[in-house]
User: What shape does this take?
Amino acid sequence: MIRSAKLKDIDRLLEIEQDCFRTDQLSRRNFHYLLTKANAQTIVDEVNGAIRGYAMLLFRRGTATARLYSFATATKFRRQGVAIKLLTTVEEKAKACHCLLLRLETRSDNLPMQQLVTENGYKKLGVVADYYQDAMDAIRFEKCLVAEE
Ligand SMILES: CC(C)(COP(=O)(O)OP(=O)(O)OC[C@H]1O[C@@H](n2cnc3c(N)ncnc32)[C@H](O)[C@@H]1OP(=O)(O)O)[C@@H](O)C(=O)NCCC(=O)NCCS
Assistant: This one.
């Protein structure tokens, strides 16, 4: 089941951060702010009480571009279609908020994420040097959420 993240999910979201990211992990304080005050939407995939993955979208007033700010599937639930389900849902949510584009960055060594997004209609916009805490470059991708004529 996909549902909106709640404050009570933060402990599990922190476990997923530790499981999934070596650098640039979101902290408890980050999650608290992002779930309560930010112009953001966070969804989780939950099955039998277990949160398998999550996705966080950020919006900026005055632009029609949403940003996929954080995205992960816990290791033990990978390759079961969790990410594709989360990605499809955040795209629908961005469209429902009148966004035309969805943008994201991923590490240049993150081949699973690059594979996932290129297979789902995202185009490479460019490389952002020295983007992550360990100085790894990011690849920026964008998808047009409306049918192009
Ligand atoms: C990238 C990630 C989100 C994929 O999650 P997932 O739930 O395992 O992905 P899915 O099962 O929905 O797979 C969807 C597609 O993604 C691609 N993919 C996923 N894992 C892959 C892998 N290890 N190698 C190559 N392609 C992969 C494939 O195209 C796959 O489709 P397929 O199964 O038909 O081949 C997951 O590996 C992850 O959380 N990694 C660590 C955190 C991270 O990198 N987050 C993204 C930050 S930008």
Summary: The first strand starts at residue 2 and ends at 4.
